[in-house]
Amino acid sequence: MAPSGSGVAQAARRRARYPARYSALALLRRGKRPWPPILRGGELASSYDAVVVGGGVHGLATAYYLASNWGITNVAVLDKGYLGGGGSGRNTAIVRSNYLTPEGVAFYDRSLRLYERLALDLNLNVMFSRRGHLTLAHSDGALRTMRWRAEVNKQVGVDSEVIGPGEIKRLVPALDVSEAPRYPILGALHHPPGGIIRHDAVVWGYARAAAALGVETHQSTEVLDVATSGGDGPDGKGPGGRVTGVRTSRGDVSTPVVVNCTAGWASLIAAMVGLRLPISTHPLQAAVTEPVKLFLPAVVVSGSLHVYVSQTDRGELVFGAAVDPLATYDTAGSLSFAEDLAGHVLQLMPGLGRMRLLRQWSGLCDMTPDYSPIIGPTPVDGFHCDVGWGTYGFKAAPVAGEQLAACIATGEVPELIAPFTLDRFAAGRLVGEKGAAAVGH
Amino acid sequence: MLLVPCPHCGPRNSADLTLVGETEPRPDPATTTPAEWRAYLYEEHNPAGWCRETWHCRLGCGRFFVTERHRGANRFRHPPLGASAGEPGEAR
User: Fold this and answer.
1) Exposure letters A367-402 (e unless 16+ CB within 10 A, then b)
2) Which of A280, A334, A425 lies nearest to residue B46, judging by beta carbons?
3) Distance from the CA of A422 to the CA of which of A35, A124, A327, B4 falls in 20 to 30 A?
């Protein structure tokens, strides 16, 4: 588990150890001399204590907590593209913990608490805006699920409450709460701790803090194979084997621990050790409008209308939707998505009729059958997974990294992630979060 | 939009069809082990290459059919005649 002591005291100790390098004074002192590079890269070493595959927020968080909580600093983070170029830079930056199962709520609540003091820990402003989160209900069934979620949340100590149309209108005046729309708003699950965070800042913060502790990050370094011995399958792969190294596009390294922190490519990395995961990869599209004056004070989500929307500090509206129904690795955008999105948003906020979309993009989501992630050890010794994050990976990165680091360092699965291990599928104890994790149902 | 080659209707918009999933041989429920059955239920090959899939022509002819799709490029090819079900696309 994490070291004892309050978060603030811990951060103060860390600051004393790693004093702020960037200040007005430092800027003056340095003058025109170039700043030293922040990330540690260069040539690959011949061996590491652990290799993390995937330089997104999950991979970097895992490496950071391995180094900071457990002193394991001989770690390399490999990414075939650039840091934060996958789901970490494509999500809609929403954080919340109002899930459906007690396991899920406790897990995401821990993540939110880590996010709350992340700026202090990483010495970088991650722009956490705790503005509240509204999940709208347009039907009796949805309202029932909201009540269920509110009760589970309160049981675990998370602030969630079902509110009526009047209260919704008071919180977000732009919403149409009348009877006029095709799907009128009947109520909402109000979750005050939810909000948005600058997702790039989280990636950069973890990368910088991990590098300061000695972690190497290697970008443009693709993992081609994972060397495994002693397994049931060909080449010593498969259950029962153990990891011995990684073959990359820049040479071979030996390591006893490989952590699969990829999104979109999780099945392909797992196949390199002879494992099959219960994952199929779907693209999810998102879009952003031109910036306007701030008018949307909370994150608004509608499951029935398959949309979630928040306004950034710059004034752009960021929209996300359900995953595309077709399993594919193709991230091309579609006009039908933009049309559906616009129609649904106008049902919620008819006043946006003249706003223009600036751009749309998509990212890859690894969907599991129960809408919960797969974290922890696998039947291949030394091969750890932090995958299957579907549409909810960003908000969970700190807790996933922290708990997985503990799992790797101690060899024991921490209580918080025990419900989410890969063996739950064979054992038949799924953690059904579909009602709270996705908007497309 | 993706055009799916239904063997009965011809090319149709993918919105008219449902991707049932990867085509896998179903273990015999009378003799299978729980582990094998769970693997059949949940595990996927999920390749970024050719994949043998079952589709349901939901709003068209209503038939189920098997085809192969490249999940990276979203191209289709029909499986060779007489090929046994359950072999996933090898190309990655």
Assistant:
1) bbbbbbbbbbbbbbbbbbbbbbbbbbbbbbbbbbbb
2) A280
3) A327
